[in-house]
Predict the structure.
Amino acid sequence: MTGSIGKWLQLLRANFLVLTVITVFAGLAASFYQNHTINFLNATLCLIGALLAHMAVNVFNNYFDYKLEVDKYTPKTPFSGGINLIVNNQIKPSTAFQVGVLCLIGAGLVGVYFLKLFFWPLFPIIVYGAISIYFYTAYLSRIPALSEIIAGTNYGFIMLGASLTQYGNIGLVDFAVFILVSMLVGLLLFLNEFPDVDADKMAGRKHLIILLGRKKASKLYVALLISIYSLVVFLVGLKILPLTCLLVLVTGWLGYKASCIVLKNYDSVKEIVPALAFNVLIVLTCIGLIGVGLVLGSF
C-alpha cells in the first residue's frame, strides 16, 4: 500500500506542489495588503483549485512526455527530467490520463464556484489556464520561446487569481506581483531546461535554451536574475510595493552561487545540478518573501 501511494505521489509530483502553495500565499498577501482583511473560505477553495490544476499539469506533462517518447531519453535530475512511472509500466498511460482529467475537472468545479462570484475578471484567467494545462506539453511547447512565458504567466495568474477571488478587485500591487511571480517561475523552468536540451529537440520543442544554445542561455539566466532583483527595488522605489518587500534581496547570495555554477558548467548535466537546487530555493524564497513583505507592510 505504501509503495502504491508513493507512485501516485510521484505521478502528481507532490514535492513540487509547494510552489503553488507559496504562489497562492503571495496572491492572498497582495489582497490583504490592499484590503486589510481576508476571506478564509475563498482562500481555502482557491488553494484547493490551484493545487488540483498543478496536479493536472504534472500528470499531463508525464503522460504526453510518454506519448512523445521524451521520457526515454531525458536525463533525470532531482529537479528536471520528469519520472519514468509510465515508461516502466508502473502506472498505465490510460490511468494516468484519467487522473489528469479528474484533477482538471476538480479544478474546474472550483473555478465554476468563483465564476459565479467574479465572472468577467476571472473568466479569461481560467480559460488561459485550462488551455495551457492541456495543450502545453503536446503543442504549445513547440512554439519558439513560448514555454517559459506560459509556465511563468500561469503561476502569475494563479497569484492574480488568488488575490482576485478574495474580493473581486485587482490593483496595481497585484499587477506588480504578477510580473515578479511570472518572471521567477519562468526562470525556474528556464534553468531546468538545460539538462533536457537533446531530448527536447527530439520531441520538437523550441524553448529558449534550444534557440540560444546553452552558453548564451547561461548569460541570459544571470541577466534575468539581476533584472528580477532590480525590478523589486524599482517597484519599492515607486512605492507600489512596501519597503518590507526588499527582504527578497537576502536571496542574492543564492543567486550569486547559482550564476557562478551556470556560467561555468552550462554544458554539464551533472555539474549544473547544484545550480538547479539553488534556483529552486531562489524562486520559492523570493515569492514567499514577497508575500511576507506584503503582510508586514500592511501593519
Remarks:
- The longest helix spans residues 40-67.
- The mean pLDDT is 88.
- DSSP finds twelve helices and no strands in the chain.
